[in-house]
Design brief:
The protein has 15 helices and four strands. By secondary structure, the chain is of the alpha+beta class. The protein has a domain of 207 residues: MetI-like (MetI-like fold), CATH 1.10.3720. Strands 1-2-3-4 form a four-stranded antiparallel beta sheet. Helix 3 crosses helix 5, helix 3 crosses helix 15 and helix 5 packs across helix 8. The two termini are 39 Å apart. The N terminus is likely disordered.
Length: 385
Amino acid sequence: MSTTTLNEPFGPRQEESAGSETVARAFVASQWQLVWWRFKEHKVAVISGVFVILIYMVALFAEFLAPFAPDEVNAQYLYAPPQQLHLFDTSDGGFRIAPHVYGYSSVVDPAAGRRTFTINPEQKIPLGFLVEGDPYKLWNLFPMNRHFIGPQQAGQPMYLLGADRLGRDMLSRLIYGTRISMSIGLVGVFLSLVLGILLGGMSGYYGGVVDNIIQRAIEFLRSIPTIPLWMGLAAALPANWPPLRIYFGITVILSLIGWTGLARVVRGRFLALRSEEFVTAAELDGASDLRIIVRYMVPSFMSHIIASTTLAIPAMILSETSLSFLGLGLQAPLVSWGTLLREAQSVRTVLQAPWQMWPAVAVVVTVLALNFLGDGLRDAADPYL
């Protein structure tokens, strides 16, 4: 026979009370609160979300974070190897914060006809934060000349990720490429989102002839091999277009291809929702078809749309990278991860300057982070499971 102890009110009953309070909070919480609570439990997705935010912050402040202009050429440092960043100085027996890199010693190889660089530990190049450098306009609005990090004395070499075939800083070009590659993912997914919700919603809401026409168009687009379709549409862009117009053209092309998957998902949801009572009530209340779709039906599965959108951004980034790598996407002087990888096509270049593959590392890490974030959002999209 069980006995009651004096500590019982502070033991199992206290735990039951806490559990009951949690259950009560779940019953009165909104859908977005439930999604957020479950998303926080997905630690990998949370870390990936923070990483994605940092990547977009780099894209937003590219001019400030890049030490040099992306097209700044220096013929003395062609294919210069990466320098190691040292934050502390212990040369005089002390310990102080003094960021610096070591300079180069170069030897010209007459047989190969190229210059070979080695790090010279005798030449110390002091670095500084918020140093003056190349002038720029932040967001094309505010004229500035301060950079996050750079050499304290102008003209001294600082290539933390190495230099390319023209002596341009790979770190600066990688930062500028982040802006274009990541913005193409956002803009392209936004256009695909609009097309997918609009056409998929019309297909599922109206049905009949409208549904047949839209679904046959989707099947036709999905039956065409992706890469030849990209190549054909990209080749249709006029060669005399300026780089900015080509950028928007590539974005529209990727959007025209990427909306079909989301449209299928939206159509299925609309077929299930159009017979619900709240849709019937809105129809009897005299609401227009557009208001029913936008105001009532789309918000009911907005969490799924957000998860699908997050998973679609990596596909857009890979599409732009593939097109630019093949020479059918963005062209110089625009800098993206795809155009940077195009310069590392030959095996000889990769063997002589493996740091030319840094854009590939950026693509892989970013795509993985976005996929982990999308998986976490997808798992949290239905918090009742």
